[in-house]
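User: Run a structure prediction on this.
Assistant: Running it now.
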Amino acid sequence: MNFSNTITADNFCSGQAGYVQLITGGAADFYPYLKSFGAIGLDSALGEFARGTPSVPANTTTGVSFYDGPCVPLAISEATTSEDVSFSTYLMFKPDLKPGDPGPNIFVPLRLITWELHDEATFDTGTWTPHTGTTTAAPPGTDSTDFPHWTTTY
């Protein structure tokens, strides 16, 4: 999944931007704790500013890109494995601290992009055969002021 959003800053506002991603659902071999406990996991590998937080200069429009390729290892001991996962990806922005501001400033949510991945594969005679899977392509997202909340870290 990849997409980008833009942030338009006025003369008085500059800062940093980044994405935070939460995962719900699970896969038989990789996310068992999410599936069995109904947990919401923070994707600390890709979602928590892993690619850095791009600067957003004042009086500009800046693109902020996101890319994620979910990777679930398939266990040969299982005849069939599946993945049924939902992602909530938040675009976050932290304004720069101005002289005289009490600070510290924090990252606040601007946009929520949700997408899902549903797929299955079967192991037969030494080969994994994928079944038809479904994904959501380039979701538009919605403006959001709700902060992300998670119960575990992935």
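Residues 32 and 149 are 20 Å apart (CA to CA).
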